[in-house]
Amino acid sequence: MTFDLLKKAVTEEPVLKLPDYTKPFQVQTDALDFAIGGVLLQDDHPVAYESRKLNDTERRYPIHNKEMTTIIHCLRVWRHYLLGSRFVIQTDNVATSYFQNHKKLSPKQARWQDFLAEFDYVMNYKPGKTNVIADALSRKAELATLTRVTCDFADRIKEGLNHDPLMKNLMEMAREGKTRKFWVEDGLLFTVGNRMYVPRWNSLRREILKECHDSKWIGHPGTHRTKAIIERSYYWPNMRSDIDAYVRTCLICQQDKVEQAKPAGLLEPLPISERPWESISMDFISALPTSEGCESIMVIVDRFSKYGMFIPAPRDCTAEEVGRLFFKHVVKYWGLPRSIISDRDPRFTGNCEDHVKCYRIRRSGNHNSTFTPVYISGSKTMGDPPSPLLSVNPETFIRHWSSIEFIEL
Length: 409
Fold this sequence. Notes:
Domain Integrase catalytic: 272-409
InterPro entries: DNA/RNA_pol_sf (IPR043502), Integrase_cat-core (IPR001584), Integrase_H2C2 (IPR041588), Retrovirus_Pol_polyprotein (IPR050951), RNaseH-like_sf (IPR012337), RNaseH_sf (IPR036397), RT_RNaseH (IPR041373)
Strand content: 15-25%
Distance between the termini: 119 Å
Protein name: Integrase catalytic domain-containing protein
Low-confidence stretches: 142-150, 357-392, 405-409
Number of strands: 15
Shape: elongated
Mean pLDDT: 78
Strand order of the largest sheet: 12-11-10-13-15-14
GO molecular function: endonuclease activity; hydrolase activity; nucleic acid binding; RNA-directed DNA polymerase activity
GO biological process, one term: DNA integration
Largest sheet: 6 strands, mixed
């Protein structure tokens, strides 16, 4: 007898069946004060069930927003079934059935409409008496908690509103529709990812850092994990910098955690130059007293002979000016070196390359500058320049006249 009852239960409803994509789907939903539920049907036979509890924020929604929350949740779960197929959404709330025709929408409702635009659907009203399956799912007894934890954190955030000018300005902009990155719900400010804005007031931010890092349920995670935990639910400006500083100064982490980074290796000396002015180093001494309009010194040292040149330079010395000084004081007398050792100063990595492009200077992979020397020789005098060079490009020749050193052979 028991086996026959079991066989009958397995072969009849509400056993789920596989979807047939040649037939239309039906989505029936329902929402209560503490839970939501829905069922996916084909030919009035269930294909899938879905239900979950509402969080504290969702429980404060008006009924039509709860019904829309149910629809959006079910469509996200069954997206792989419904995308590309035409289906019918059946809800037992009359106002929700006219959601497509609403003119004035809150930021959350506007995001819901953007999501619904992906689907080909029709939304109909179905009385609650006939919507029994979804109604039963939303009334599951185990979803109703016997005890409930109370928290005054949201109230403290509202209290801190008047103490954070930035939060007040953002809430005013959100209410006036001047920004889509922030919106207001129940007197709280939210941003992308449904994250709550935490004002700079009292110790709210530090309490969040402590709870998400020091709690025994968390176990003192590293910087990246702590960021991931906090960024799920909260937001405030410069939050990542605050998290870095908190984790870096945590006493327990400093005492108990083992350093995972590899020890620093030995310094690698630069190759020794074989002749003078083959390799040079360049740097700046800045923030000096003003003298004849110059407030910094461009230091150039030959790495072979240690001969140094100290060139006055303006305070805001551009990359182009660096190139000009380099050719005027170094290249003109010593020629182009094979390599230049410098730091990542923008004056060395900027448009200085463009200024010396005509000399076939190129950048090397180790952040130095590698040069291909160019020599001009002849038996002409300064008053009688080489006519072939002058006739080919007179403007370029005149611009670099000071860089030429004529050698008698």
